[in-house]
Amino acid sequence: MDTRDIIDCLDFTLLDHDASEDELVSFCSQANSVNPAAVCVFSEHLEIVRKHLDEGIALAVVAGGFPVGSSSPEEIEIAVRTAVESGADEVDVVLEPRDSEDFPDENDLKKLIAMREAAGKAVLKVIIEA
């Protein structure tokens, strides 16, 4: 495995709600120079990042109350659907089991189904917060 193979597996990430447009443009410039598999930002930065990101780099956004996975299935579905409709190639969400003994419980399954259906053809990455 060489350096390129490793970079092709990485998401270049800037998760800062307060990131300025200049910081986001600089972030995109850095991402464009290394050409990672994807960049990951908060959904409110999607439009700016898409505008400055080279073609071929996937745009991932975090949604559904990230980094806390306690949103309702309905809230998560809306957040994921909105991200995809806004142009996200990938959506990262957190699922936070309340009780590891019963994981996944009925509510977790509802969330997973809602996320998957809302994501459509977009890549969906579910992070299990333990």
Provide a descriptive summary of the structure in words:
The chain is an alpha/beta fold. It folds into two domains: 1-61, no CATH class; 63-130. It is 41% helix and 20% strand. It contains five helices and five strands, in the order αβαβαβαβαβ. The protein has a five-stranded parallel β-sheet. The longest helix is centred in the N-terminal third of the chain and has 14 residues, at 21-34. It is globular and about 45 Å long. It starts with a helix and ends with a strand. The model has no long low-confidence stretch (mean pLDDT 90).
What's the short story on this structure?
This protein has 130 residues and is an alpha/beta fold. It folds into two domains: 1-61, no CATH class; 63-130. Helix content is 41%, strand content 20%.
List the helices and strands and how they pair.
Layout lengths: L2 H5 L3 E4 L6 H14 L3 E5 L3 H7 L5 E5 L10 H13 L4 E6 L10 H14 L3 E6 L2
Parallel strand pairs: 1-2, 2-3, 3-4, 4-5
Helix pairs in contact: 4-5
List keywords for this structure.
five-stranded parallel β-sheet, 130 residues, 2 domains, alpha/beta
Strand order, main sheet: write it out. 1-2-3-4-5
Instruction: Choose one word for the global shape.
Output: globular
- The SSE string, one letter per element, is HEHEHEHEHE
Helix/strand-derived class? alpha/beta
Measured as a percent range, the helix fraction is 40-55%
> What is the strand tally?
5
**Radius of gyration, Cα only, in angstroms?**
15 Å
Spatial separation of the terminal alpha carbons = 30 Å
| Oligomeric state of shown chains | single chain
Q: What is the strand content?
A: 15-25%
Overall tally of structural domains = 2
Tally the helices: 5
Q: Uncertain regions: pLDDT < 50 for 5+ in a row?
A: none
Q: How many strands, which pairing sense, and closed or not: the largest β-sheet?
A: 5 strands, parallel
Mean pLDDT: 90
